[in-house]
Design a protein that fits this description.
407 residues, Serine Threonine Protein Phosphatase 5, Tetratricopeptide repeat, single chain, TPR_rpt, 24 helices, mainly alpha
Length: 407
């Protein structure tokens, strides 16, 4: 295993190789650990790999404990990073041995590197057929559809990717703004003032915090990550700085790096609630639901009045089909946010799903009391009243919905 780890260190970042390179692992975790998006700004290949190409290839031939398909995939990735034409040969051989998500990912990336976007899109489409629940492939195809000015195809892929994992919304929004980052920066006077203040006094962490956040606001996530990294070096083991950086890594769907930062934050401060919450969300993205729920439980034990815990956990329960558990958490959220209409809407939806229409009606009533000008609430309540046989009430609500919608 040490020999394999030695090889992996030459092909991937230190954070990524904490997961075994095995096709027996979870598909989502393997993609998060060892796949790359077809976005050149995110490709951090080893620039010295060409000089070591032959030696690493020989090491892979004799490496013990490596599955045959994994060996071929690594040879393909090695050849791609080194710029050798053998890459596609190894990767097609790997797919013949066993069709894998990583195989599709590397093949598509290989053609992307060659500038053959049409072929790359074809491979991503095949991957979507075989792995329809993996948002990664829709995001990759979205990026290339944008490159080919296929707005309709790109929009479809964007919608599916963000529905499967909302972080892909942030990733694709960032990608859309990449070419405008310098223009966006020019228009931000506050950012420029913070830059000037920071240059004059680079020891001020309060300025660095604000500056990094300004870069987040203009979608320059990579610059924000670099600034948070500076903060980590300066802050002398402050857990929150790792959480800040992890949050931006998650926006770029760099989940392994984000998890490592959350783990580091918790090694500094085992009571860091924000790290538990963020790590839980990351674990959910990797389909490690039990571990995610355990992190939410720990966060709630540390700070039982932290509203984000119950909202995020209820959302997870909802996706798992555990509607009764979601209702419990939304009820806790309501207790903490009595004057906010939205938790009532969330709980009403859960009541509807388990057939408790009367309870749902009461929640919509309360939501409308708190926010009588939100038109959609009347449409939601109209559907409930209709299902309960109150046609007059339903018609009244629909009329109110239309009035507010016109305004």
């Amino acid at each position: 295993m040490q020999q394999i780890q030695h090889i992996l260190r030459k092909l991937f970042s230190e954070e990524r190789i904490r997961v075994d390179f095995s096709v027996k692992g979870g598909t989502t975790t393997l993609l998060a650990s060892f796949a790359y998006l077809p976005i050149r700004e995110l490709l951090n290949f080893n620039i010295n790999i060409k000089e070591e190409y032959r030696d690493i290839l020989s090491e892979l031939d004799v490496a013990k404990g490596l599955e045959p398909v994994a060996s071929l995939l690594l040879k393909g990735m090695l050849s791609m990073q080194a710029g050798h034409d053998d890459a596609t040969k190894y990767l097609y051989e790997a797919q013949k041995v066993q069709v894998t998500a990583l195989g599709y990912s590397y093949l598509a990336l290989c053609y992307f590197m060659k500038g053959d976007f049409d072929k790359s899109i074809q491979i991503y489409s095949n991957a979507i057929t075989d792995f329809p629940k993996e948002p990664y492939f829709y995001a990759c195809r979205c990026v290339l559809n944008r490159c080919l000015d296929d707005d309709e195809g790109a929009f479809y892929d964007y919608q599916v990717a963000k529905r499967l994992d909302f972080n892909y919304h942030s990733l694709l929004e960032w990608h859309e703004h990449l070419s405008y980052l310098e223009t966006l920066k020019v228009d931000q006077l506050e950012l420029q003032e913070l830059e000037s203040t920071w240059e004059q006094d680079p020891e001020r962490l309060d300025v660095l915090t604000k500056l990094a956040l300004e870069y987040v606001h203009i979608y320059d996530y990579q610059k924000a990550i670099r600034l948070y990294s500076q903060g980590i070096n300066m802050a002398d083991n402050q857990a929150e700085w790792y959480v800040y950086r992890a949050a931006i890594y998650s926006k770029l769907t760099l989940y392994i790096e984000a998890l490592e930062d959350c783990n580091q934050a918790l090694s500094i401060d085992e009571n860091c609630v924000s790290a538990y919450i963020l790590r839980a969300k990351l674990l959910e993205c990797l389909h490690e639901h039990d571990a995610a729920l355990e992190d939410y439980r720990k966060a709630a034990s540390l700070n039982p009045e932290h509203t984000a815990i119950y909202e995020e956990r209820a959302s997870l329960f909802e996706r798992l089909g555990k509607f009764e558990d979601a209702i419990v958490d939304y009820s806790k959220l309501i207790a903490l946010m009595k004057d906010d209409f939205y938790p009532y809407v969330l709980r009403a939806d859960m009541f509807e799903r388990i057939g408790k229409q009367e309870e749902a009606l009461l929640d919509y009533n309360r939501a409308i009391d708190l926010n009588p000008y939100y038109s959609d609430l009347y449409q939601y309540r109209a559907a409930i009243r209709e299902s309960l046989g109150d046609k007059v009430g339903a018609e009244s609500d629909l009329q109110k919905f239309e009035e507010l919608d016109e305004e």
